[in-house]
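TL;DR need C-alpha cells for one chain.
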Amino acid sequence: MAVAVPPSRPARAPHASAPPAPAARAPTSARRRAALRRLVVQLHLWVGLTAGLVVSVVGVTGSLYVFAPEVTAALHADVWRVPADAPRLSDAELVRRVEAGTGARIESLQWPLRGRDVWWIKLFGRDAWVFADPRTGAVLATDRSLPAVHFFAWVLEAHTSLTLGEAGYLITGGASLLLALALVSSGLFLWWPRRRAAVRRAVTVRWRGATWRRRLYDLHNVGGAYAAAVMVVLALTGAYWSFPDASQRLVDAVTGSPRDAAFPATPAEEPRSAWSPGARPLSLAEVLAATDTLFPGHARRNLWMTADTAGVLYLSWIRNPRVAAGGEYRPMVWLDRYTGAPLRVYDPARAPLGTRVTNVWLPPVHYGEVGGLPTRVLAFAGGLAPAGLWVTGALMWWRRRRRGS
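>> reply
TL;DR here they are.
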C-alpha cells in the first residue's frame, strides 16, 4: 500500500516591507586599492594634459638640438668648414685683423668648437655676431645671415624657456620635475602588471587583430614604460638649468661636498675688478698673452671682455673641442680687467665631487653625448617620447570624454 507523502512546505514570500538582502561587499583592501588607483589615474591624467604639454615642447626642441652641429655644418659648409691642412692665423693676429676690418673692438671670442671651424665673434655695440675665417681674419657671415644658425638659436631658447625669458625657465623646470616625480611614477604604477600572466601583455603592443583604440592604449602604456628611464634622466638633468643653485645644493648634500668657491652662492660674493684713478684695462691681446700658459692640454673655448669699470674678464677652456663621448672638462677663470690677476678659478681636476657631477657629467648626459653616437640617438628618441605620449593620452581622454557625454 502506497504511503502518501505530504507535500513539502512552500517557501513563504517575503513581507513587502522587508529589506533586500545586502550585496556582498569587496574586502576593505580591494576597495582601498581601487580608490588609490582612481586617484592615481586622475593625477596622471591632469598632470599629463598640463605639464605634459610643456615637456612635449621641451622634448621636441631638445631632440632637434641634439644634432644641430652636424645639420648646421651640412647646410652652411661653405662658411662652417675649413680644410684641416689650411694654415691658420695666431689668435692675436686674427683679433688684430678682425678689429681693423670691422672698425670695432671685440667683446667676445668663441674659438672653433663642435664641428665649427671658424671663429664666432661678438663686437662691442653691435647685436649681430660675425664668423671670421681663421686663415685670413675676413668676416664671412653673421649669425642672422645663416638660416640654420638663426633657427637653432630659436630652438634652444624654446627648449630652455619657451621664449618667455626668466618665467619660461621656471615653467620648463617645474614641468620637467613634474614629469620625473609625478607623471612617470604614476604611469609606471598604472602600467605595472599585478599578475605574472599579465607581464607579456604589459610589454607588447598588439597590432594584429586589435582595434585602433587597443593599439592607442598599448602605444601609450607600453611606450611610456620603455621610455620612462630616459625621460627621467633628461628631465632631472634639464631641471638643473632652471634651478641651478638649489640643484647644486642638493647634489653637494648628496655627495657630501663643500660648495666650490669658484661659484659664489650670492651676487654679493661675486668678485669685482679693483679700479683706481688712471688704471688702464688690459687689451684683448694682452689678456691672450697673459693666459697663454694656463691649462695645458686644453683648447681655448671662449672669452668675454667687459666695459664695466668694476667688471671682470671671463675665459674658459675645454679638453676636447669636438663632439665626443665622455665628460665635459671645461676649466674657467675670472680675471681682474686691469691687472689680469685671477679672481676665481674653476679647475675640474681639483673641484669638489658635487661640482664635478654638475659641471663635468651633467651636461653630456643631458645632451646625450656621454656615450657617443648611441646615447645621442637615445637622447633624440627620449626627447620625442613625451610628445608621443601626450598625443596618445590626449586622444584616449578625448574619446572617453565624448563617450561620457
